[in-house]
Amino acid sequence: MSAPSQKPGPFPDDFLFGVATAAYQIEGAVDIDGRKPSIWDTYSHEPGRVLNGDTGNIACNHYHLWESDLDLIKSMHVGAYRFSLSWSRLIPDGTGVVNQKGLDFYDRLIDGCLERNLKPFVTLYHWDLPQTLQDNGGWAQRSTAEAFAAYAALVVNEFGDRIDCISTFNEPWCSAILGNLMGVHAPGNQDLALALKCVHHQHLAHGLATKTIKSIRPELPVGIVLNLQSVYAAEQGEEHDAAVDRHRDFHNHLFTDPLFEGRYPQSVMNVLGQNLPDTWEKDLQTIQQPLDYWGLNYYQPTRVLHDKDSTANFPQTKDAPKAHDATLTDLGWEVAPATMVDLLSEMYQRYDLPPCFITENGACYNDSPVNGEVKDDRRIEYLDAHLKSVSQAISLDIPVQGYFAWSLMDNFEWSEGYDSRFGLVFVDYKTQTRTVKKSGHWYAQLAEIYLS
Ligand code: FCB
Are 365 and 377 in contact (CB under 8 A)? Predict the structure, then answer.
């Protein structure tokens, strides 16, 4: 077992270390015990959507292996486990009949966390909308936001006394923009007007659910998890600086302004406002709810250029080619830990925010076992460098209260399928054997120091 020469940190005594997963990426058992399809079941079965035609049918078979998986998490000395619930396991059609066997599964999982002294951090929506709701229009419909609030009520009534934190959405940008504008995530639409309706109804769903949760259990901390971009101009020049501002407005502030300040960014409204549902203005008050925390999922910076093509849609930016000296992960994502501090500083300057957790951070490196060992030193370097950035942010008085490594184990990486591995634990999908990687041992050593 090896540790980096100097431990990242320091961190406050009560700093929380955890690991994260999401339901569709690990559970499998998609048609067992009353679960019905979600949009990710449908999408991953459509030819050409996911690399190698992979699906979440079996994934890590966590639905059956949850007990030994919790033991594994415990053995890593972390204090918290962040996971999401499958809406279509709990309410198979999204509204109406509740599936008792779904409740039983999460009952066992949550109790299993508590027996092992792991704080459950529960996410309600990590992209897997029940297919029946999609068939009725999905996030483009206001009724989906109302259905989400009812789902939140079920979860809090059932589990609210036993969980530590609840997040409404994981990365609403991905489900709205990747799923409905870029068409590279479920449900696979490419429609700007539709995507904006989805953005708004997801915001509304967050607001309605937050109100519902607080009315049932005021003491339960509620937040939302965002994948904000740290945006830089790849070349000098006013046009590129202006492009950065537009890019931030569209990809970040379209989410953070309504959620944190109850307004939409003016630049987006000027160009695209007509695509929002007619009710947008009167919904803003519901959308902006006081939150107890927010989560940042951070992986890499975004480098953009002004797009000279005047017919390009707002924000009229294009991704810059990677710099020749950029360090890249196996998915081609740039490693630049200091950019996370820039982003956190920017957010706390722009908004009056509650404390935050880094709810996801990690890297895709596809090292395999050699003689039973996975020597993923590059992942250790990545995590070490990003944890140093977290510590630096704390030294700048940014209230970061914890850090969750993405991910506990290799899993179904959405459109990238199973080839892209982010785990601290290696999963052999043929045998479902788990092997703790070198990075997993390293992280466990670090987490143990802070385990109170
Ligand atoms: C995030 C997702 C998570 C995982 C990582 C690599 O955007 O929230 O499910 O796919 O990226």
Answer: no
- Residue from 297, 409, 420 whose mutation best tests the ligand 1 pocket (most atoms within 8 A of CB): 297
With a 6 Å cutoff on the Cβ, whether 21 touches ligand 1 is no
Summarize pLDDT for 96-145 with one digit per residue, the tens.
Answer: 999 999 999 999 999 999 999 999 999 999 999 999 999 999 999 999 99
How many domains, the chain? 1
Within-domain flag for 259:
yes
Q: How far is the CA of 422 from the centre of ligand 1 (A)?
A: 9
Buried/exposed 204-239: b ≥16 CB within 10 Å, e otherwise: bbbbbbbebbbeebeebbbbbbbbbbbbbbbeeeee
Reported confidence tier of residue 287, pLDDT bands at 50, 70, 90: very high
- CA atoms within a 13 Å half-sphere pointing along the CA-CB vector of 186: 26
Distance CA(65)–CA(61), nearest Å, equals 6
pLDDT, averaged across the chain: 97
Question: Whole-angstrom distance between the N-terminal and C-terminal Cα of the chain?
Answer: 23
Q: Are 328 and 256 in contact (CB under 8 A)?
A: no
pLDDT band at 368 (very low <50, low <70, confident <90, very high): very high
Mutate to test the pocket of ligand 1, among 123, 167, 171, 229 (most ligand atoms within 8 A of CB): 171
Residues spanned by the domain of 25: 16-451
Q: Is residue 1 part of a domain?
A: no
Query: What mean pLDDT comes out for the span 190-209?
Result: 98
Q: How far is it, in rounded angstroms, from Cα 133 to Cα 33?
A: 20
CATH number for position 389: 3.20.20.80
Neighbours of 319 (CB within 10 A): 12
Task: Report d(CA 430, CA 428) in Å as an integer.
Answer: 6
In a domain, 6, yes or no: no
Q: Measured from the CB, is residue 414 less than 6 Å from ligand 1?
A: yes
Instruction: Tell me the one-letter amino acid at 126.
Output: H
Measure 236 CA to ligand 1 centroid, in angstroms: 31
Residue 104: predicted pLDDT: 98
Q: Please tell me the distance from the alpha carbon of residue 232 to that of residue 197, in angstroms, as a whole number.
A: 28
Give domain status of residue 164, yes or no: yes
Q: How many CB atoms lie within 10 A of CB 342?
A: 16
